[in-house]
Amino acid sequence: MSHQLEKKSSYNVAIAGVTGAVGEIFLEILAERKFPINQLKLLASPRSAGKKISYDGKEYTVEALSKDSFNDVDIALFSAGGSTSKEFAPIAAKAGAVVIDNSSAFRMDDDVPLVVPEVNPAAAFRHKGIIANPNCTTIIMVVALKPLHEISPIKKVWVSSYQSASGAGAKGMYELQTQTRQLVNDEPLTIEAFSHQLLHNVIPHIDTPQDNGYTREEMKMFYETCKIMGDPSIKVSSTCVRVPVISAHSEAITIESENPITVEQAREALDKAPGIRVVDDLPNNIYPMPLDVAGKDDCEVGRIRKDLASENGLTFWVVGDQLRKGAALNAVQIAELLISK
Ligand SMILES: NC(=O)C1=CN([C@@H]2O[C@H](COP(=O)(O)OP(=O)(O)OC[C@H]3O[C@@H](n4cnc5c(N)ncnc54)[C@H](OP(=O)(O)O)[C@@H]3O)[C@@H](O)[C@H]2O)C=CC1
Ligand SMILES: N[C@@H](CC(=O)OP(=O)(O)O)C(=O)O
Known about the structure:
341 residues; Rossmann fold; globular; Aspartate-semialdehyde dehydrogenase; 6-stranded parallel β-sheet; 24% strand; 14 strands; Dihydrodipicolinate Reductase, domain 2; alpha/beta; binds NADPH dihydro-nicotinamide-adenine-dinucleotide phosphate; binds aspartyl phosphate; 6-stranded mixed β-sheet; 8 helices
């Protein structure tokens, strides 16, 4: 069975997980980019079945995701967690849809391309029914790494992330907002979505601990970077940290490349690269910050400087809206690539 999308003037699109943090942004982005939709199917858990959601001036009723949800669907955008993807993405692909999956369920499968359109667009066409959207922190980083890797191959990356509450979904954003209100009202703080109070704190722990002392989020950055960049020799050491910011992830990155990359070369390459903007004027207090980047499509890079501690090293700061470029926008850009051929 061929999994390539048949060329049409408009497509039947399903969104699994439409009531979640990423699902909501999927709808915003499809509308903003005028994605050619014929029929739209909105899917979530049985808890949300019957809920009404507007899209492009029309009201839709959310349906409970089931094995029969994908008949006549061309493109299925999944954002409903790894276990839901594991169960339903193969069913959707078998029914003839091309699945673009936001979860971590299939990212490292050999048969599943892991795609960031600015980095490895050709991989999108090698799918067998499922394409994986990478981890959000990794997407934001590789958009900046790619133009630098083209100047001189990157050998090593050290990165510390400053990941917003929305990375933990709707419940993460809600908990940070609730804690703010509770603190003002002198009430006990609810701590459910994160392992500690996030308000007025930073938590150096995202996803499950691994045997090597890193977390699963950190190991996703290690493995996914190599797969997306098509270079298994790149070594990534990361510390992923949750910070009390509602939306947009920040990352302090140091790279070591085969040959030196000057600040000027880096700035010029990043300036020209798609999906990223240089915002870098330290003396005038101008650098990327989550408050400014939240809601934007492009990632922003600043604080570009020669690293003082590593050989052939360059240090910089990248911020991206992880619900957009780190999730829904990247997935919609993959869908746009598929329908462009
Ligand atoms: N938040 C982020 O920054 C990013 C998230 N992702 C990934 O995207 C996915 C969704 O994340 P996010 O939007 O943040 O999470 P949310 O918790 O905000 O939303 C989860 C969504 O999945 C639906 N869902 C949950 N269980 C089921 C089920 N059994 N069957 C059908 N639908 C179900 C929920 O429906 P209901 O409302 O009915 O419960 C809801 O629509 C995850 O895999 C996450 O790892 C990827 C990149 C970034
Ligand atoms: N990276 C997200 C979590 C997430 O959704 O990751 P993944 O898509 O790799 O499961 C965060 O900030 O918490």
